[in-house]
Amino acid sequence: MELGEQRRFCIAGLLKNVRRLALFCRKACEKHFSSDELDSLELAVVEAVNNVIEHAYGGESQNPVEISITRHKSFFRVRVYDYGKPFNPEAIPSIDFEWGAIENIPESGRGLYIIRTIMDNVTFSREKNLNMLTMEKHLAIVCGDDDYEELAPSIWYEKVAESVQTHREMESAVKLHNSIIPKQAPDMPGLILFGKSESALETGGDYITFYKQDDSKLWFFVGDAMGKGMSAAIFTLLMHMVIKSVMKTKNPDDPGKLLSITNQIMADDFDRFGMFITALSGKVDLKKNILSYASAGHCPPIISNDRTHVELLDTQDYMMGVETDVDYHTYTLPFTKGMRFVAYSDGITDITNSRGEIVGVEPLLYACASEFKTKNVDKACAKIFSEALIATGGRLQDDISMLAIQRI
Description:
The protein has two domains: 6-146, 2-Layer Sandwich (Heat Shock Protein 90), CATH 3.30.565.10; 180-407, 4-Layer Sandwich (Phosphatase 2c, domain 1). The radius of gyration is 24 Å and the shape is elongated. The protein is an alpha+beta fold. Helix 1 (18-29) runs antiparallel to helix 2 (35-56) and helix 9 (362-371) packs antiparallel against helix 10 (377-391). It is built from ten helices and 15 strands. The strands form three sheets. Strands 1-2-3-5-4 form a five-stranded antiparallel beta sheet, covered by helices on one side. It has helices at residues 18-29, 35-56, 107-118, 153-179, 230-249, 255-265, 267-273, 346-349, 362-371, 377-391, and strands at 6-12, 64-71, 75-82, 121-127, 130-138, 191-198, 206-214, 217-225, 277-285, 290-296, 302-304, 310-312, 331-334, 340-344, 400-407.
């Protein structure tokens, strides 16, 4: 592998696939480590993936397990991703055992003990519903300093000039991305609409839009690219263009079909950039009094049947970018006078309180139930959104978005 190169491989969480992930790691690293070191790397990957299957997923399944391998100057970084139950190895104390006494370690901790013994650094993080175990292995021979030589003054000035131009280009990219977020919802007789998005950085990876098919059909879409900032913004811009193209050329029958086609078209881009997107698409048919929706690993939407009762709706399918061929399920429900539907990104539910704890979805449900008693969905959600921003103390950790529809 070249310096800075990254390779990724994603496969279903089946025990028969563990060896394939280990061999993928060995193949990527084989020119940079000894045979014994490669054996150890393989073992660490096997233990990590086995833990994912057994503990995160609770057994074999079609749920994805992904591995990425990146070559740095002085080490290789191996990351294992999954979407199962969170597990923090840093919460498990290190055990000072000799290899010969490994049988004395509780079975549940042996895999972690092996990984910590083999690898030079082991950390865990969780973003949204994605678990990431990071393992680093130092190289015996480090790249030469020539790879990082200081730029000559003339080149330095050229780089400064380029950075100014790059900044201007980034400003244009920000304006382009922000332009795809609707400033106001379309006028749709029989409906009250609300849509708003706020980025943690200058721009971000959240995406909301409405698409008026005719006077009786309204499509809507909420998307959230992994991460935030410019890279996420560019990816949501790409998704926006794909969705527009699909709507105009494929004329999908239902929201699940829209997600399936979009996921297939963007499959190569997901793989190339190592990105994932959670999304929720939907359609309101005023003639049939039906609202239909489909979810790709997105936050469960909220439905209100009257001014006091609110509940979360069912969502099951996983995010776009995991599998190429996914038939996303379309859910349908009656959508009659007075009913409200709310979709949102997890930036709202992942706001932390004064103790650093994630507040979750319960405060949002309570706020909806309270505000819907006296307000239509546009005024109610505007207040909820404003209060969510206040709750962050002006320090957004993630992009936040909300989209809502009320039948009148």
